[in-house]
């Protein structure tokens, strides 16, 4: 009879609130304590390889497309000519991989504070980290908040692929960060930022919506399904200085992309902005 591991890993995030995700592990591939956090990579029975940072599940091979494709293609199928793109965080490489599926992109910068995340993902998660050597890519191992504060009107699209608002990512959920985000974008730029679960973190979403409205002409919020994330879903702040997320959707461009994708399509794009009443009510007077 073949051997089957009896080892399980439980996510630390949300445990204090009486809820967690638990996955069966078939192998532990890497563990490393960087300057910023503990980095672990596992093989799991149900979700393939998984990246874990400080005990929090970051991404898995099986369901990562729900996150990366929606973070990237929603804003990039709205902007008419996204030539200059910045990814903040995203050391696993999945967001960068999706950005480079857009032929208009001439410059793709990634600012990841922890270079060891990039190093280990390049070694153990090649399906995500396959685009770092593209000639359009420049990697900066710096603090993303400081990086954007030092640049004005430098990008058409900024994608904030952050972990949760704890540890080194906490600054990416501040009012000052959203102000600098707006100033770092060109006059018609769009940002999309990781903005937590409507079921578990409504107060975070409300706060970020207030920042979004203060610094962007067309603020909105949308969501996607990711089974290994808290509550099985996660949302994004759509922060636009000009373009509407649905009225300005480039339908033909979005359709053409779908042959290269597993999750995103034009119908999913539109539907992602249709929010359940409980969170829509909380956002009334801010986004609605």
Summarize the structure.
By secondary structure, the protein is α/β, with parallel strands linked by helices.
Secondary structure layout plus pairing:
Blueprint: E1 8-10, E2 22-33, E3 38-44, E4 48-53, E5 56-60, H1 64-76, E6 84-89, H2 94-99, E7 107-111, H3 115-124, E8 137-140, H4 144-149, E9 155-161, H5 175-184, E10 185-194, H6 202-215, E11 218-225, E12 233-240, H7 251-257, H8 266-271, H9 277-282
Parallel strand pairs: 6-7, 6-9, 7-8, 9-10
Antiparallel strand pairs: 1-2, 2-3, 3-4, 4-5, 10-12, 11-12
Poorly predicted ranges: none
Q: Write down the overall geometry.
A: globular
Give the count of structural domains.
2
Mean pLDDT: 95
What gap, in angstroms, lies between the N and C termini? Answer: 59 Å
Oligomeric state as shown: single chain
Give me the Rg, rounded. 18 Å
Which sheet architecture does the biggest sheet show? Answer: 7 strands, mixed
Number of helices: 9
Specify the structural class.
alpha/beta
Beta-sheet strand percentage? 25-35%
- CATH fold-level topology of the largest domain: Rossmann fold
Q: How many DSSP E strands?
A: 12
CATH class category of the largest domain? Alpha Beta
Give the tags.
Spermidine Synthase, Chain: A, domain 2; 2 domains; 28% strand; five-stranded antiparallel sheet; 9 helices; 288 residues; Rossmann fold; alpha/beta; globular; single chain; seven-stranded mixed sheet
Report on this model:
This protein has 288 residues and is α/β, with parallel strands linked by helices. It has 2 domains: 8-58, Spermidine synthase, tetramerisation domain (Spermidine Synthase, Chain: A, domain 2); 64-282, Rossmann fold. 27% of the residues lie in helices and 28% in strands. It contains 9 helices and 12 strands. The strands form 2 sheets. It has a 7-stranded mixed β-sheet with strand order 8-7-6-9-10-12-11. α2 (94-99) links the parallel β6 (84-89) and β7 (107-111). α5 packs across α6 (202-215). The longest helix has 14 residues, at 202-215. The protein is globular, with a radius of gyration of 18 Å. It starts with 7 loop residues before the first strand and ends in a 6-residue tail after the last helix.
């Amino acid at each position: 009879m073949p051997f089957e591991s009896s080892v399980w890993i439980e996510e630390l995030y949300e445990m204090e609130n009486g809820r967690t995700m638990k996955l069966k592990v078939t192998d532990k591939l890497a563990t490393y304590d960087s300057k910023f956090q503990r980095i672990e990579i596992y093989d799991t029975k149900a979700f393939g390889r998984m990246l874990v940072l400080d005990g929090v599940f970051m991404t898995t091979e099986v369901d990562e497309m729900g996150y990366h494709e929606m973070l990237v293609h929603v804003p990039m199928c709205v902007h008419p000519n996204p030539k200059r793109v910045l990814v903040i965080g995203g050391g696993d490489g999945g967001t960068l991989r999706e950005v480079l599926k857009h032929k208009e992109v001439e410059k793709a910068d990634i600012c990841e504070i922890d270079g060891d995340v990039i190093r280990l993902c390049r070694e153990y998660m090649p399906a995500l980290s396959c685009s770092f050597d593209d000639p359009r890519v420049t990697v900066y191992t710096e603090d993303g908040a400081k990086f954007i504060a030092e640049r004005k009107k430098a990008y058409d699209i900024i994608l904030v692929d952050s972990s949760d608002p704890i540890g080194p990512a906490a600054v990416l959920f501040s009012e000052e960060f959203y102000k600098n985000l707006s100033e770092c974008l060109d006059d018609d730029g769009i940002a999309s930022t990781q903005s937590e679960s409507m079921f578990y973190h409504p107060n975070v979403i409300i706060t970020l919506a207030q920042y979004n409205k203060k610094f962007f002409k067309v603020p909105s919020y949308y969501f996607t399904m990711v089974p290994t994330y808290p509550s099985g879903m996660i949302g994004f702040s759509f922060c636009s200085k000009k373009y509407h997320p649905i009225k300005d959707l480039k339908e033909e461009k979005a359709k053409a992309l779908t042959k290269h994708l597993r999750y995103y399509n034009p119908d999913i794009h539109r539907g992602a902005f249709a929010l359940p009443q409980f969170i829509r009510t909380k956002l009334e007077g801010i986004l609605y």
